């Protein structure tokens, strides 16, 4: 179903306004706890305005212990907008304007990439509910530009965009795996080397000034991610809340991620035709999020546009099952946090853990649907799976 540009544009504006209405309740209470969780209007924007020194226009990487827990472009956005705000409310509203514009731009870019399913992004309920939780849309916009330019074979523009995205939020770095596979399979080894070199050099150019002048603050983001325990939304926290205690979580999550990546690479080799980056990006980022030690509610902002450019008409049922599960989880996490922060009612740990697992299962189901559809056109000239199975047989 193709929808005209004007209709898509109007849907994007409407979605951004509905999301703002959802978050605006907290402005009247200045994001008081547990009220911000009860009404599901929590946002990192006003919270970090005070906690990370933006209220005093402090350099975001100056402190060893209070440096912002994000890559440098996000930190610079936080810092730059702090000079135009004088309170948590004005800081929130100012950043919301930029995020709304980015969201509208993302929707219009999706229309260019996948016109028939662009409408899904501004009508997806979990997407609307999460627009203003964090600054993720800055990284998502450049990630989608990188995907669009890559599939248009504008590799240098794509490399520039993805390096900016990685310097904003690190998740985009995992797309380098399918990018490398696609260029290698197309026998474009020089293009692959140039792509990776360009991405690396631009990432270094963006990060080096901060890393050299305030190294501890710059490193804090990476240190926190390596040392963090099972966090909100993760498979590992859900299992822990259900009484399944796991040790060596860092190694376990890396092992699951490696298993996921290995399965993903085998899947790529199974395909008869070289896939587009747009068609496989959802799968690789979903695998990362499922294996990760944190699965934040705003991660839906990353996955919904990627799902819209990956699915076909027969996949729509899986998309909506997934969105329903994500919306249920969106309510669940805030009601659980309301309970643990002093509300008289809320969602206990067991219920929150079950809904976390339902959310993860729905994500995995959509991944499975996309994989099975892609494998309908398997490589009939001897697949990698055939090679593995044959290699395991004993010689006569």
Provide structural commentary.
This protein is an all-alpha fold. It has one domain (5-379). It contains 19 helices and no strands. The protein has helices at 5-29, 35-38, 44-51, 72-82, 88-113, 120-123, 125-130, 136-151, 155-166, 176-185, 189-213, 215-227, 235-241, 249-270, 277-291, 300-310, 316-340, 349-374, 384-392. The protein is globular, with a radius of gyration of 21 Å. Mean pLDDT is 93; it is low at 384-396.
Task: Give the SSE map.
Blueprint: H1 5-29, H2 35-38, H3 44-51, H4 72-82, H5 88-113, H6 120-123, H7 125-130, H8 136-151, H9 155-166, H10 176-185, H11 189-213, H12 215-227, H13 235-241, H14 249-270, H15 277-291, H16 300-310, H17 316-340, H18 349-374, H19 384-392
Domains, number:
1
Order of helices and strands: HHHHHHHHHHHHHHHHHHH
Specify the structural class. Answer: mainly alpha
Q: Give the CA-CA distance, first to last residue.
A: 56 Å
Rg to the nearest angstrom?
Answer: 21 Å
Please give the share of residues in helix: 55-70%
Shape by Cα distribution: globular
The count of strands amounts to 0
**Number of helical regions:** 19
User: What does the largest sheet look like?
Assistant: none
Overall pLDDT score: 93
Strand residue percentage: under 5%
Low-confidence stretches: 384-396
Which tags fit this structure?
single chain; 396 residues; 19 helices; globular; disordered C terminus; mainly alpha
Short description:
The chain is built from 19 helices and no strands. The protein is mainly alpha-helical and 396 residues long. It starts with a helix and ends with a helix.
